[in-house]
């Protein structure tokens, strides 16, 4: 028996069962982790004392497929087979690992299984205490695994924790708090037009059972209009029945007529347009067509599910005989049996499908009608999954629900809902709701450490200053790292600038500790006048009000500690123009576009460096805009031309073909370049066939310095504009987000003079400057060298007339280093990249005339 409970209350159910039936009659079930192919290689490698790198190289050659064995790996991986053939050590490793495959490696507790007995379990099955349990009253565990427990006749219950039930409960509570509405989730309007419209549009992110790419596609085609439609889709979207989904959809919309496998089955299959959808229908067919009892029919269903050939052959003969006894022809009986045989093992029973459809509708209803409260609940349940938060925040943006940063005076532990505020800081005149980040969502900060702080705020009101926080709040459980994380995430923005607070974090922690010690010693109330207690005056920290961190650094902190950008998305300033210049937004690329050429713009959110089977490097990156993300693959040929582009934080324009792999949508990159929109660039159709390198990065022909023969590239005529290495356009001087141009956006010579096929690097009218770059020596010599080389590489990429002076600071003093041919052009893009590498203190711009 399977039962789903809210995952944050599953332990309560187990304790209830223990108390009701007795501690000696309830136990959880043991499960054994076994050695797979890769695990066997790694464990044997450790036992043999082989170098980790050697063992890891062999393990990585084992294909990552379900039920993979070493014998199968040797057949499917030519590289592994070749290593085994040529290398004695690898052969010994693999041959030693083979006999260990499949043996039990460790024991743990089954995720859901609970045994309930009418007799003391110690008399029926061996028991043990959980390996990590410290409580003597911990629930016992059987030493028999799930299959053996079932064979000896014990009742196994599956108590499953379902996150979506937790989400529903939290959303209902937030709706009550914000709107005063007491929702009964079992008494919703089941024909809500807004809910079905949202589903028909495929907006199913965070909707139970309906958010996968494949399911979204079918839901858009089905356009469900009832709970029954949702139940059927939940049941059909499985390996066996999935092939019948198009038939079900077309029959519902009258595109094709409803057809029954046999007229005698019309009554059983009429509700599902002639398609077998549920296990219940299989049982009824066996009963109606061949005279089975329901008990006998269920035995056949189980045999089908286990694919027991001998039992199935025997049952087939029984079915054919029974069908003929009821007057059906042998041909009709064989056709019906062939139809139900592959299906029965995968099908849902109708009760299961309807229960899941109910939850799917409830989540969809709340999202459609109470989006702020629902998304706050979803975000709360996804707090520890940083990879999901960005997509969920993007969905909030699409729904028009603002997501606000954490705030020491407004946030709770979880994500909460509050009235959005206008520019004056007052609540908006219209009751628009926003989601506020929870403080417990900040990395490095534990919920238990924050509870005393929130209790203080609840008791004494909002904090009025950072000194007030130090005086009133109990910060003893918050270490320096936690306080720094809260500052960087913006939780104290209402009380001071992040840069200033961060620079004084040691003083903050010290003052908080001192105040706590005074309170505990009774010295924080020095005066007792006329029976009144007067608190001692708190010294001011005198933190400067004008010292703040650059926006770029703040955004990097937010991404690191919250998983998303909250203050401002780096792509926000160009998003509107990107929507006009591209064929789709990242979140809009779907399976329906498979095979199409599209152009998208976004920010590189993550990068994975990979290699092909022949050891050629390529890259898999995630491109992110304001409404979603898209996986981009740049194969070796493209990657070689665009290698410097694939860095986190880079704004890119990418053109390529949409592919569907592993159930997800990807874009195979054909061309890529830095994205710097301007009026001239926007006039160029992105899908018009470009010149040889318009979509490539900073091609060498853009430099007027002499180039080695291996780097020389012939200048070609283009229909599209030329882009400078720093991302600006050769036909207009605007830099990113600044059409008028600035220190980074240089206009090309109006006549576009080219000497020897080169383009001038900067206008002669601009006075040359000197950029002083400071590097400090550390104990990590290799790291220092790598940082130095990276700085030079960045400087060379932003070609211009500004001189560069490198200052190397060490324990022995300072060395000035000038590289004769190293010039650059200082601007915001160059500044941002160098700051990420060296910090703000590492740069100084000096006008040469000064």
SSE inventory with pairings:
Layout lengths: L1 E5 L3 H12 L4 E9 L2 H11 L4 H9 L9 H7 L1 H9 L1 H10 L6 E13 L10 E2 L11 E3 L3 H6 L3 E8 H17 L13 H8 L12 H10 L4 H10 L8 H8 L13 H4 L9 H12 L3 H13 L2 H17 L4 H15 L5 H20 L1 H11 L4 H14 L3 E2 L11 E4 L13 E4 L10 H14 L5 H7 L7 H9 L9 H6 L1 H17 L5 E3 L2 E3 L16 H12 L9 H10 L15 E15 L5 E8 L4 E6 L1 H7 L8 E11 L2 E11 L4 H4 L86 E8 L4 H17 L4 E9 L2 E5 L5 E2 L3 H11 L4 E5 L3
Parallel strand pairs: 1-6, 2-5, 7-9, 14-16, 17-18
Antiparallel strand pairs: 2-3, 3-6, 4-5, 8-9, 10-11, 12-13, 12-15, 13-14, 15-16, 17-21, 18-19, 18-20
Helix pairs in contact: 2-3, 2-6, 4-5, 5-6, 8-18, 8-19, 9-18, 11-18, 14-15, 15-17, 16-17, 18-19, 19-20, 22-25, 30-31
Could you explain the architecture of this structure?
Strand 17 (769-776), helix 30 and strand 18 form a beta-alpha-beta unit. It contains 31 helices and 21 strands. By secondary structure, the protein is α+β, with helices and mostly antiparallel strands. Mean pLDDT is 79; it is low at 524-534 and 679-765. Helices cover 40% and strands 16% of the residues.
């Amino acid at each position: 028996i399977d039962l789903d409970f809210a995952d944050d209350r599953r332990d309560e159910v187990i304790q209830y069962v223990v108390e009701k039936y007795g501690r000696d009659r309830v136990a959880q079930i043991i499960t054994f982790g076994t050695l797979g192919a890769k695990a066997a290689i790694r464990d044997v490698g450790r036992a043999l004392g082989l170098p980790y790198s050697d063992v890891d190289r062999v393990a990585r050659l084992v294909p990552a497929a379900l039920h993979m064995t070493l014998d199968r790996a040797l057949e499917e991986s030519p590289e592994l087979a070749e290593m085994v053939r040529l290398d004695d050590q690898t052969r010994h490793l693999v041959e030693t690992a083979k006999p260990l495959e499949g043996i039990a490696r460790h024991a743990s507790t089954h995720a859901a299984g609970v045994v309930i007995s009418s007799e003391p379990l110690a008399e029926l099955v061996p028991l043990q205490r959980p390996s990590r349990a410290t409580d003597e009253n911990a629930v016992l565990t059987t030493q028999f695994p799930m299959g053996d427990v079932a064979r000896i006749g014990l009742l196994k219950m599956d108590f499953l924790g379902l996150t979506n039930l937790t989400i529903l409960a939290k959303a209902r509570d937030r709706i009550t708090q914000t709107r005063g509405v007491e929702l009964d989730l079992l008494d919703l309007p089941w024909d809500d037009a807004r809910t079905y419209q949202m589903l028909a549009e495929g907006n199913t992110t965070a909707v139970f059972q309906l958010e996968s790419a494949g399911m979204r596609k079918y839901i858009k085609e089905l356009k469900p209009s009832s709970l029954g439609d949702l139940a059927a889709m939940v049941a059909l979207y499985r390996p066996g029945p999935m092939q019948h989904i198009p038939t079900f959809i077309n029959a519902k919309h009258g595109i094709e007529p409803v057809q029954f496998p046999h007229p005698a089955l019309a009554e059983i299959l009429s509700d599902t347009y002639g398609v077998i959808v549920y296990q219940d229908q299989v049982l009824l067919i066996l009963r109606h067509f061949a005279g089975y009892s329901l008990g006998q029919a269920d035995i056949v269903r189980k045999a089908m599910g286990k694919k027991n050939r001998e039992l199935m052959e025997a049952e087939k003969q029984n079915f054919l005989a029974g069908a003929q006894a009821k007057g059906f022809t042998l041909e009709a009986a064989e056709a019906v049996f062939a139809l139900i045989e592959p299906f029965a093992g995968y099908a849902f029973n109708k009760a299961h499908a309807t229960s899941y459809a109910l939850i799917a509708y409830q989540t969809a209803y709340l999202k459609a009608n109470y989006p702020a409260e629902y998304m706050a609940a979803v975000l709360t349940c996804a707090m520890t999954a940083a990879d999901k938060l960005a997509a969920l925040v993007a969905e909030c943006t699409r729904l028009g629900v603002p997501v606000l940063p954490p705030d020491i005076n407004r946030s709770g532990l979880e994500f909460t809902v509050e009235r959005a505020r206008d520019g004056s800081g007052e609540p908006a005149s219209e009751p628009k709701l926003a989601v506020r980040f929870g403080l417990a969502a900040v990395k490095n900060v534990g919920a238990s450490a924050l509870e005393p702080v929130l209790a203080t705020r609840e008791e004494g009101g909002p904090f009025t200053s950072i000194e007030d926080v130090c005086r009133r709040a109990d910060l003893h459980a918050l270490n320096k790292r936690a306080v720094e994380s809260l500052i960087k995430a913006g939780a104290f923005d209402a009380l001071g600038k992040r840069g200033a607070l961060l620079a004084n974090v040691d003083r903050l922690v010290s003052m908080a500790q001192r105040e706590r010690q005074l309170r505990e010693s009774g010295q924080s109330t020095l005066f007792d006048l006329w029976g009144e207690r007067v608190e001692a005056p708190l010294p001011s920290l005198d933190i400067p009000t004008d010292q703040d961190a650059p926006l770029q650094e703040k955004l990097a902190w937010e991404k690191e500690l919250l998983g998303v950008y909250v203050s401002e998305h780096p792509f926000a300033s160009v998003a509107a123009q990107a929507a006009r210049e591209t064929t789709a937004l990242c979140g809009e690329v779907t399976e329906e576009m498979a095979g199409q050429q599209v152009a998208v713009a976004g920010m590189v959110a993550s990068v994975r460096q990979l290699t092909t089977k022949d050891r050629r490097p390529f890259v898999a990156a995630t491109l992110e805009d304001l409404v979603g993300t898209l996986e981009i693959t740049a194969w070796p040929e493209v990657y070689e031309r665009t290698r410097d582009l694939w860095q986190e934080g880079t704004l890119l324009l990418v053109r390529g073909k949409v592919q569907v792999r592993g159930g997800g949508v990807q874009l195979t990159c054909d061309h890529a370049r830095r994205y710097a929109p301007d009026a001239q660039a926007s006039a160029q159709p992105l899908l018009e066939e470009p010149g040889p390198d318009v979509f490539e990065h900073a091609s060498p022909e853009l430099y007027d310095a002499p180039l080695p023969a291996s780097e020389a590239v012939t200048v070609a005529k283009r229909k599209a504009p030329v882009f400078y290495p720093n991302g600006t356009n050769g036909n207009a001087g605007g830099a990113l987000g600044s059409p008028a141009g600035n220190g980074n956006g240089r206009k090309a010579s109006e006549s576009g003079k080219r000497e020897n096929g080169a383009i001038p690097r900067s206008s002669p009218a601009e006075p040359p400057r000197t950029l002083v770059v400071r590097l400090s020596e550390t104990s990590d010599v290799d790291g220092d060298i790598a940082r130095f080389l990276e700085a030079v590489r960045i400087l060379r990429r932003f070609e211009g007339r500004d001189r560069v002076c490198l200052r190397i600071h060490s324990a022995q003093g300072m060395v000035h280093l000038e590289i004769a041919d190293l010039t650059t052009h200082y601007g915001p893009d160059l500044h941002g990249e160098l700051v990420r590498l060296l910090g703000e203190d590492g740069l100084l711009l000096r006008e040469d005339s000064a």
